[in-house]
Amino acid sequence: MEPVKVAVIYYSATGNVHALAQAAAEGAEKAGAHVRLRKVAETAPPEAVGSRPEWAAHVRNTADVAEAGHDDLEWADAVLFGTPTRFGNPAGQLRAFIETTGPLWYHGKLADKVYSAFTASNTAHGGQESTLLALSNTFYHWGGIIVPPGYTDPVQLQSGNPYGTSHVAGGGAPSETTLEAARHQARRVVAITAALKAGRAA
Ligand SMILES: Cc1cc2nc3c(=O)[nH]c(=O)nc-3n(C[C@H](O)[C@H](O)[C@H](O)COP(=O)(O)O)c2cc1C
């Protein structure tokens, strides 16, 4: 069977979600998928980006990451979305990309794919789950198949978020446990998507 195609589409201002996205891409690749790692376009004005040195540095450091487009969504069998938590919701930059997808949705091109999501917030109770659930609202509208990590691997009992890999950025960069949770989430997405593809091909 043709390998599962996974797009990891994310927004990150200061690198935490980018690190999770890289781990998810790695997990999917190791599970045998073809992977596209894509950032969404920055919508904040240059003055805003420049006002925070760590934000400006991250933009420079990820200049070589391709920007997400509709072709990535069409190509993928499964999409993992990553976003910082912003007032308990996905970042506007990711929403801006999602809100360009009306024509794809209208033509049924987003339906029947597998979707999963991960996030970072500054604090432990800062809205990670509300962010992931808010993204899921879109997956329902698209007719997607939501695949959360649940507690399907021992790492989930350490990292502790069945809704999707979540990182508390106030404590520093993602730990190896959190990165492993992202890899596990991606592996699970690949496994479920492969089973769906095989079932559809049969
Ligand atoms: C406008 C704005 C709103 C935010 N809202 C929240 C929030 O509701 N809860 C929280 O814990 N952190 C919040 N944060 C912190 C971000 O979630 C945190 O900086 C982000 O997860 C870091 O990810 P990144 O390094 O990939 O950009 C907010 C940050 C900004 C700029």
UniProtKB/TrEMBL annotation:
Its EC number is 1.6.5.2. It comes from the Bacteria. Signal peptide: none annotated. One of its GO terms (molecular function) is NAD(P)H dehydrogenase (quinone) activity. GO terms for cellular component: membrane. Coiled coil: none annotated. Residues 6-190 form the Flavodoxin-like domain. Keywords: Oxidoreductase. It is an enzyme of class 1 (oxidoreductase). Pfam families: FMN_red. SUPFAM superfamilies: Flavoproteins. This is NAD(P)H dehydrogenase (Quinone).
